[in-house]
Design goal:
The complex is a heterodimer of chains A (293) and B (358).
Chain A: H1 7-13, E1 17-21, H2 28-40, E2 45-50, E3 60-64, E4 67-72, H3 74-86, H4 89-97, H5 99-107, H6 111-123, E5 129-133, H7 137-153, H8 158-171, E6 176-182, H9 186-202, E7 208-215, H10 240-254, E8 263-267, H11 276-292
Parallel strand pairs in A: 1-5, 1-6, 2-4, 2-5, 6-7, 7-8
Antiparallel strand pairs in A: 3-4
Chain B: H1 4-10, E1 13-17, H2 24-37, E2 41-46, H3 52-56, E3 67-68, H4 70-77, E4 84-88, H5 92-103, H6 107-115, H7 117-122, H8 130-144, E5 149-153, H9 162-175, H10 180-183, H11 192-205, H12 207-221, H13 224-239, E6 243-249, H14 255-268, E7 273-281, H15 294-321, E8 329-334, H16 343-351
Parallel strand pairs in B: 1-5, 1-6, 2-4, 2-5, 6-7, 7-8
Antiparallel strand pairs in B: 3-4
Helix pairs in contact in B: 2-16, 5-8, 6-12, 9-13, 11-12, 14-15
Classes of the chains: A alpha/beta (293), B alpha/beta (358).
Chain lengths: 293, 358
């Protein structure tokens, strides 16, 4: 069967756990929210954000009857995990109130990542679909890497067993999809390909779909149907017309970096300033619904 | 500060913060360019597993040792550069080693720390130790080398705040003497609660890890005094007038709450905030009101949104910053009509600092 550009996205949308990833500022949050909205039409869905400083730890909001939005946070996740593993409430209390343990939960590099990913893994038993709005590339990878780091350090322990189980789940392409979001600029495009490389190094069977967000519309053409050409030695455009034309040309050139990559395109959605994010998500949901149809 | 020029003139260290993708690295490097043109000997440090500074400088890669870019800058700007511009992208492992060696001359202790699996795991890339390393680099180049200005492009992280939290968190480990729990032989002298907690931890993490943890603690014990002194000096430095914090943000309405929150945290810690860069604005573009072209209409819509974003941002920032008395600058930087590919583009960005602040 001929592969269509949206096929990978369609596959990704059917996975029980979907990690939405990419460089900072490419629109991961809006894509994740749109994907979660779409999943929730047919499945009980959880959208997970990671440590949004503007929300309380573990704050759980109902966005619709079938869509919950969790603000995952490491200290809360550590406490919950310890509670489940230790069992006896008195012992849990002794453990969690211990200054040294509280310190570990807050400061040890890698522990926070481990419990954050652990919480996602834990919740996948409670929901049909989980969509994770991942942190920017480097930090997102840290989350996955921590499983292997701690799995080795904790060899033979309860934690290592859990880390191993998490790795098994997250390595399984039947359960997990990765959606890498980019915008048509050089660095995000390159970084997203590198990200795919890292993901496959960590999870060799990983299925990675690509979405190209904020594609600028084609500029006006001259009467002969050709695009207007502007000198490129000027670093800044003077008029909107020049900027639009040069931006479109630049995007086309940049996209050669993705030649051979199948991706879903999302146009540049510019809403009015009020309720900007909601409106973008609404429009984006419509676009993605069409792509997934 | 009235503008970034005041910051360049008066600070010894500038720390650029902001969420990913807003152009933090580009802005940091452009400030470096400007400072060198003003006669400063400046170094731009970026800790970034994705190696963006090298790309935006047009270099294949940057080494662990500072790279001198002054001649290259003279070439592409066509100007005589009175200062010096260096760039550096430290490697985690090397930074860690240098830090440990600066704390003790006892080679056996150094080797013991290096051999500990906990440390070697977490001094790798993508292990979450970047914030700590950034501070190590900052203090090293500020104190040990004769730079007039150190610009630190903070590592991409969970959020803009994790960088601010790193030094205090580390210091707590030593200040609250938490390390002593790791060096008591066989936990014999530990209080009941502590013993209980450790036995739970051992159940969760295994005996092997606990041994490594105790070994790690004992190894660090050797350097703890110097380490604590170092952390204290870092914190003192960050609070001093020598250090200014800068924020790079996108000119969108979503940035306002984040900026407000960031300023609150800066204030609480007693740090000094200099100003905001609103990067990649399209407000400078002359519109053609008669155009019906979709792409031009989109640019106008974005420009209109920027105006509203700027107003809410300024009010969020000013309300949080009130009481800190110092003046904030806002630089709006137009979006280039091409990708930032090298020093030349950074030079062009830096010329925009001359425009009036908003």
């Amino acid at each position: 069967m001929e592969k269509t550009p949206h096929e990978a996205l369609i596959h990704a949308s059917r996975k029980p756990i979907l990690f939405v990833q990419g460089k900072g500022g490419v629109g991961k949050s809006s894509v994740a929210l749109a994907m979660a909205h779409l999943a929730s039409k047919t499945h009980r869905t959880l959208l997970v954000s990671l440590e949004d400083p503007l929300r309380e730890p573990f704050d759980l909001r109902k966005l619709s009857p079938t869509l919950d939005h969790l603000n995952n946070e490491a200290t809360a996740a550590f406490e919950q995990y310890a509670g489940i593993k230790i069992g006896a409430p008195n012992l849990v209390k002794v453990f969690l109130q211990n200054r040294f343990m509280r310190y570990l939960a807050k400061a040890a590099p890698g522990i926070r990542e481990l419990v954050l990913i652990g919480k996602i893994w834990f919740e996948h038993k409670n929901y049909d679909r989980i969509v994770v709005d991942m942190p920017a590339t480097g930090h997102g990878l840290t989350l996955f890497q921590s499983l292997f780091n701690w799995g080795n350090l904790f060899e033979g322990s309860i934690l290592a067993k859990d880390a191993k189980a998490m790795i098994d789940t997250l390595s399984d392409p039947a359960l997990v999809g990765h959606l890498v979001v980019s915008i048509p600029e050089e660095m995000p495009l390159v970084e997203s390909l590198e990200l795919r490389g890292h993901l496959i190094r960590i999870f060799p069977r990983a299925e990675v779909a690509f979405a190209l967000n904020r594609r600028f519309p084609a500029p006006a053409t001259l009467p002969d149907g050709k695009p207007e050409v502007f000198p490129e030695d000027r670093p800044f455009a003077l008029t909107a017309r020049e900027h639009a034309a040069r931006k479109a040309k630049l995007e086309g050139e940049n996209l050669e970096l993705w030649s051979g990559v199948l991706f879903t395109e999302i146009p540049y959605l510019a809403p009015p300033a009020e309720r900007a994010f909601d409106l973008i998500v609404e429009k984006m949901t419509d676009v993605l619904r069409e792509r997934l149809a | 500060m009235k503008s970034i020029f005041d910051s360049i003139e008066r600070r010894k260290v500038l720390i650029t913060c902001g969420t990913g993708g807003v152009g933090k690295t580009t802005v940091s490097a452009s400030i470096g360019v400007k400072a060198a043109m003003l006669g400063k000997k400046v170094i731009v440090i970026t800790i970034d597993p994705a190696k963006r500074l090298a790309t935006s400088l047009g270099l294949e890669k940057l080494g662990h040792e500072p790279t001198d870019l002054t001649t290259a800058l003279e070439k592409c700007s066509g100007k005589k550069i009175p200062g010096k511009l260096f760039a550096l992208m430290p490697k985690s492992r090397e930074s860690f080693e240098r830090m440990i060696r600066s704390l003790t001359t006892n080679e056996a202790a150094v080797q013991r720390i290096f051999k500990n699996p906990i440390l070697s795991t977490f001094s790798q890339d993508f292990s979450g130790a970047n914030e700590y390393l950034a501070l190590e680099e900052l203090i090293f180049f500020h104190l040990e080398k004769d730079f007039d200005l150190v610009i630190l492009d903070t590592p991409p992280s969970r959020n803009t705040l994790s960088f601010l939290e790193a030094p205090q968190l580390l210091a707590r480990f030593f200040e609250e003497k938490l390390i002593r729990f790791l060096v008591m032989p066989a936990n014999r002298f530990l209080a009941f609660g502590m013993r209980k907690a450790f036995s739970v931890l051992e159940r969760l993490t295994g005996a092997g890890f606990m041994n490594q943890l105790f070994d790690f603690g004992e190894a660090l014990f050797e350097v703890q005094e110097n380490f604590l002194l170092k952390l204290k000096s870092i914190h003192k430095l960050l609070q001093s007038e020598e250090v200014g914090f800068l924020l790079v943000a996108a000119p969108t309405p979503e940035s306002a709450p984040e900026i407000g929150h960031f300023l609150e945290q800066i204030g609480e810690r007693g740090f000094h905030f200099d100003g905001v860069f609103l990067n990649r604005s399209v407000g400078h573009l002359r519109p053609d009101p008669t155009s019906t072209d979709e792409s031009e209409r989109l640019l106008s819509a974005i420009a209109a949104r920027e105006k509203i974003a700027y107003a809410s941002l300024k009010s969020a920032a000013d309300s949080k910053h009130r009481g800190l008395s110092a003046e904030l600058f806002y630089h709006q930087l137009p979006e280039l009509a091409r990708d930032v590919h090298g020093l030349e583009d950074l030079f062009h960005v830096s010329t925009l600092f001359d425009r009036d602040s908003l």
